[in-house]
Amino acid sequence: MTRLLLRGFDIRKGYLDSPAQTRLIAALRPVLKAAPLFRPTTASGKEMSVRMTSAGALGWVSDKGGYRYEPAHPKGIAWPAIPDDVLAIWRDVAAADRLPDCCLINYYGEGSRMGLHQDRDEADFSWPVVSISLGDDALFRIGNPTRGGKTESVWLNSGDVVIMGGPARLTYHGIDRIRFGSSRLLPKGGRLNLTLRVAT
Ligand code: MD3
Ligand code: FE
User: Fold this and answer.
1) Which residue range or ranges hold the Fe2OG dioxygenase domain (predicted)?
2) Measured in angstroms, how far is the CA atom of residue 186 from the centroid of ligand 2?
3) Alpha-carbon distance 42 to 61, whole Å?
4) Fewest C-beta atoms under 10 Å: which of 121, 142, 185, 190?
5) Which residues surround ligand 2, an ion (CB under 5 A)?
6) What are the boundaries of each domain within the chain?
7) For residue 77, pLDDT beyond 90
8) pLDDT tens for residues 53-72?
9) CB–CB of 189/180 below 8 Å?
């Protein structure tokens, strides 16, 4: 495993080996069955190219009512529990004395991207956010604490884990593109990104 520090983001390249990635996908299968991926729309009514769902007490949703955390999936059921294998990664890397209450699951198919944004729907920005990449490679762009300015990009590969804490917690970031078909982890291709958060 190699470690990269970029603008306060702690990037653990190759944190999960191939068998651990396969185990994580197996643990996520029942989660995705219970809480299917859906396509959120922004407050302005545009469909996002990324499909999403969540696990944990709270899940992140976006629709005409805006962005927020909700205790139920849009189809009305409680979000499934965050799998233990996922929580074990948080325990190992987050250095936080509580567990996350949300695991947001983003799925990137061919052509999906996520524009530069800040994550600020959580109640307390002093908790870190932990991201786990699975499947196809993604070009991750890191900006600044305010909009604009120079950015730096890094490819995230399957098995990489990123920890965003401290001053980096409010840094602008996004996914420019994925290399669709670069990984064989997901049978239908694409990329799953898990972000573990303390929302409340
Ligand atoms: C920096 N996801 O879900 S993960 C997101 O790959 C999101 O799906 C991207 O941005 C993805 O909000 C990037 C890296 C990441 C996640 C959350 C962050 C970086 C972050 C929260 C605060 C600062
Ligand atoms: Fe984000």
Assistant:
1) 99-200
2) 22
3) 10
4) 121
5) 119
6) 2-197
7) yes
8) 999 999 999 988 889 999 99
9) yes
Query: How many residues does this entry show for the chain?
Result: 200
Is any atom of ligand 1 closer than 6 Å to the C-beta of 171? yes
Q: Which residues lie below 8 Å from residue 82, measured CB to CB, with a gap of 6+?
A: 55, 56, 99, 100, 103, 196
Which residue's alpha carbon is at the smallest distance from atom 12 of ligand 1?
A: 119
Q: What token pair was written down for 167?
A: 């001053």
Tokens of 7: 């603008």
Given CATH 2.60.120.590, say whether it is the number of domain 2-197.
yes
Q: Can you give the pTM of this predicted structure? A: 0.97
Residue 41 near residue 53, CB atoms below 8 Å: no
